[in-house]
Amino acid sequence: MILLFAAIAAAADVGGYVRIMTRPDMEGGDGKLGYWNLYGRLMNEGPYAALELRQGILERKPGSLAPWTDIHAKIEGGTVANADAGNGSLAYLRLSQLYAQAGNVGLQDVTWRLGTLESNFGDLGLYDMRPAQVLFDTVGAQARYQTPGFELTVGGGDAGWNLKGAEYNTVLSGGITARVNVADHFEIGAGGQGYYEPMVLGNRFAPYRTPGVDYEDYARGEVVQSWVMDHPGQLADFPNPEATDAASWKAVGYLGFGGFGPLRWNSLYANYTLLHPKSYTTETYDGESIDIYLHDLTDERTQLNVGDELQLAVVPDRWDIALAGLYGDYEDGDNDLKPTDDDRTFMSVVLRNQVYLSPTVHLLLEGSLAQEVSHNGNTFRDHKDSLFASTDGAADSVGLEYGDDDTRVTAQGKAGVVLNPLGPGIYTRPSLRLLYGVQYSTQNNAFGNSFVDSLDQYNDFGNVERHWHNVLALEAEAWF
Amino acid sequence: MVLSLLFLACIKPTGPVLTGADRPLTVVGVLDAAGDAAASDTPKALDDALLAEARLRKLSPTLEEAPAKLGAFTDKRQTDQRLEVLGTDATLLVETAPVFYSELSGQYRWTVGVKVTLAVGGKHVQEAAFDVPVFLRYHHQREADAVEAAAPVVSRRVGELLDGWLRSGG
Q1: Are the beta carbons of A118 and B103 separated by less than 8 Å?
Q2: With an 8 Å Cβ cutoff, is B14 touching chain A?
């Protein structure tokens, strides 16, 4: 046995996840049934590949408290040759995780991690979302104390590159999660993450506020124009930005229970987030580019996300179901004018049935129902001529609304055959699927498409009224 | 479509054609968890799958009862030491060592190291060492769940070893 593990230690271990599909779309779509995962991930996601390499330097030994250490590197991206617009270009892949871990060094039952960090309480599989996740945006150090029934993770570092990209400024980040498990039937967890971006005088990517900016002018991209109208001929005196600091935070919670009767497990996740303020936007007026700093215009954006998923073995080894729900309430305290993704409410429910005709041949049947409501007026186009309607159903070229409805209701149904070589299980992979999916949406052409979205295109191509969308899919998905 | 589905579902896997002529076989599973000082039993699902593979080949398997051996197996981590504890009858020893790998796209990936040894009279007649990657859905699922999830792959490899043994005159 020792020789076995010595052999394992010598080689890098490769794990990963892949999904690829072809979904010819005779109705002008890009192959996805609907716009996004709110209607269930199935048939609403594109191809994806992830490879995680793990190099053991000192392997864990069974029954030993000796130190161990390994290195992980994960490369992933959402494109595969001939399967999407990216055509498998490596430009769409990224080294998303790189970290070194060490255990039993200094403290027993503690795993140290340096590099990219993460701590989460689990996954809403039907949505492919992790609402209770912290530190995913941070590079730094993390310690996880883990014993049977209890886990505590504390980490901290810098989230500046994730939050600000090329316009980097240090954003200090710290997070903590704790989880308690009782007899493998009940789990509860809580945690949070805080961010602090210090004031740095002179650094134009640090947090600033431009004084005296009206939100409507910002929404229209007319801050400078409006100021010049109020101060004719004084563009050179446009107010300089004032330095400030910025802070944001996130709280997460988790409740899990299961192992009773047909209930395999139920996971309830929640998070409440104050988003980090944005940096700046650039307006051009009279040939001059001027930066408008946005701290005070974007520092009241909050998100509440609640998601639940349960798995039931209705008839053991014959019929399983997974049922999930998702609710989101996003508020932007600075904005009560313009519909945006920061000001909306959405809710959805997804039910997947998997019936096992044999251990490897399954039937899949999934349905979903979702509603999305914009808080600041219309943002959906319900009809083929909706580009002539926005505010109160009438065309408004200077209005901030888009479309003729503030609500989108979407229903989807998917059915087909699944071949699972490794046997029964909704999440058993690899899966080879032949699926048919249908969507009804109150929005016209509610799927990724290349239909007209401007008046000149309308004049050339016209448009069609289409609320139903049908897609056939051949898919393969695997974890390995 | 429906007919072809029913057809697919009715296809029976091809079974082994070799026969062990009711030869006795002691089957022993061991779980060596990285974070646990003591060796422990393998999950019932794996035990059942191993027994089923042996019975498919008309062997007469007996599962070694756990408590008697676990103390010795904790002290003796080498395969040969463990075989000595088990005696000289035909013995199938399946040693498993699950190690958590990482969270990967919403699943908990474990690597289950497996060493299978078929010994007769204290001599290895067949052996194989391999890793089985498995994916668990929940955080509270730990080592035993990982070994259980590996059972389909492990039992298949064990079946191949038994075939090899029987072909060589077992």
Answers
A1: yes
A2: no
DSSP string, A18-56: EEEEE---TTSB-S-SSSSGGG-STTTS--EEEEEEEEE
- Is A94 within 8 Å of A116 (Cβ atoms)? no
Per-residue model confidence (pLDDT) at position B1:
55
Count of residues for chain A?
480
A83 in Cβ contact with A21 (< 8 Å): yes
Chain B residues near residue A311 by CB distance under 8 angstroms: 137
Number of A–B residue contacts, CB under 8 Å: 116
Check residue A159 and give left, alpha or beta (phi > 0: left; psi -120 to 50: alpha).
Answer: alpha
Residues B32-61 pLDDT 10s:
988 777 888 899 999 999 999 999 999 999
Whether residue A476 contacts residue A432, with contact meaning beta carbons closer than 8 Å, is answered with yes
**Residue among A52, A187, A358 minimizing CB distance to B102:** A52
User: Is the Cβ of A398 closer than 8 Å to some Cβ of chain B?
Assistant: no
The pLDDT averaged over each successive group of 10 residues in chain A (480 residues) is 46 89 90 95 96 92 85 96 92 96 92 96 95 97 94 98 95 98 94 97 94 94 94 91 97 96 96 97 92 96 98 96 98 94 97 96 98 94 81 75 92 97 92 97 90 73 87 95
Domains and CATH numbers, chain A: 2-479 (2.40.170.10)
Mean pLDDT of B56-79: 80
* Size of chain B, expressed as the number of residues it contains: 170
pLDDT for B67: 56
Nearest by CB: A181 against B34, B109, B140:
B140
DSSP state of A235: G
Q: Which residues of A touch B152 (CB under 8 A)?
A: 422-423
- Mark yes or no for CB contact B115/A358 under 8 Å: no
**How far is residue A43's CA from residue A6's CA, in Å, rounded to a whole number?**
43
Determine, for residues A1 and B5 on separate chains, whether the beta-carbon distance falls below 8 Å.
no
How, if at all, do strands B60-63 and B24-31 pair? parallel
Residues A130, B106: C-beta atoms closer than 8 Å: yes
Binary contact (B5, A357; C-beta < 8 A): yes
